Protein 1
Amino acid sequence: MDTCTVETGLLKKKPCGHPAVTHCLNCEQPLCAQHAVPELTDTGRKSGKFLCKECEAAHREQKKSLAAVAKSAPPPAPPAKKPAAPAPGKDAPAQGKGSPSDDGAIDFTPGKK
Ligand SMILES: [Zn+2]
Ligand SMILES: [Zn+2]
């Protein structure tokens, strides 16, 4: 017969030793009635399964972080409506091989001439 292996005691850790009534759903260690933590479903109801204290805490953290992620995630952006743009290039006259960034730089010519 299994005995509870949950370690108790703050300074000196020792196994609980009480007769186990169930096992941790996650790590499968034997748990006594005192150390079996009922697993709660998303709706807060008991699932009928049990976890040890550590696994239950980890379980809760995981759920919490999952919820936080779901909460902080931005809602999906609506699809951007693209205005029907006319085909570019046809109206603009081709300026040969000159650089298109010339305009605006005419007034200001630093040092070099
Ligand atoms: Zn466990
Ligand atoms: Zn115990």
Note: The beta strands are 7-8, 14-15, 22-23, 30-31, 37-40, 46-51.
Protein 2
Amino acid sequence: MNKSNVLINEARSIIELRYKKGSHTVGSALRTKSGKIYSGISINGLKLHLCAEWTAIGRAFVEGETEIESIVALHRKEDGSFEFYPPCALCRELLIKYSPEATVILSEAEFHKASDLLPSAWKK
Ligand SMILES: [Zn+2]
């Protein structure tokens, strides 16, 4: 199994473990440059939505891992099937700030550098 398939399976596993209709429908998994893998799930409040990528990144940051090598997100549809889930603009900004060279997995055959997904991004 190649490295991207390991992350894809990890994202799928966290949704299967924590899926909750209307809230935990997206799972994300990332690999840090040190080789560790962290996963996260989406969290929906009444007005707030926290992306799965943010919870995965947050778990990595808590462990002192801020350099992301690659990341993927999957969405579980109501019929139980999965689809790749491209990062939203806020996730793209977060990735660019901390790991602009990170590989974002958009399908089994589509990979992009994070900085290419948000050209001309505002930098501070
Ligand atoms: Zn997002």
Note: The radius of gyration is 13 Å.
